[in-house]
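Work package 3, deliverable 3.1, input record:
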Amino acid sequence: AQKVTQAQTEISVVEKEDVTLDCVYETRDTTYYLFWYKQPPSGELVFLIRRNSFDEQNEISGRYSWNFQKSTSSFNFTITASQVVDSAVYFCALSEAGAAGNKLTFGGGTRVLVKP
Amino acid sequence: DAGVTQSPTHLIKTRGQQVTLRCSPKSGHDTVSWYQQALGQGPQFIFQYYEEEERQRGNFPDRFSGHQFPNYSSELNVNALLLGDSALYLCASSFFTLGNTEAFFGQGTRLTVV
């Protein structure tokens, strides 16, 4: 069975500080996909990033970056120079490859509060 | 290009009643998945529909059922409502691929059972 754990329930920072969100996952699959979603107060989940299990290259996209380490089953996410609009709940998610399609297993979420 | 739309946005039902939630997927998407998100928790997968058939199901009782129409829109039905069914119900649409594309979510339907 798949499992995603986000140990941080809430993080509070002052604007312009960096925020790193931790995610640890469990899966028996050798091929899988990892995602980060953002949920603002409106409720809609907004896709942020996706990573394939066979590509451990870490990247930066604008103010977002991620650190994928297969050896420790971690997929951490960083927001650089945080802004008030980044305040939301962030979810890490995992999906299998193959016929399982886009069934997502989510972590419990981390609430980020960015204060002006 | 309209994204995923869900209706209604809010709903209040009495314990024991039945409810139907609706979802229209993003244009071009052929797969609809439903998730239940209890307050303060991550979304939990209910089931997924493709080609008008249920393809996968999470750990939810038979009281939860669904349907997909030829135009790819979908309904989620919950019978014999319990207080514990109170949650945000999210619909996600995607292509029926091998799990390598992102799912697009609607704004959700907030169901309150009293």
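Chain A touches chain B at residues 4, 6, 32-33, 35, 37, 42-47, 50, 52, 91, 95-109 (CB under 8 Å).
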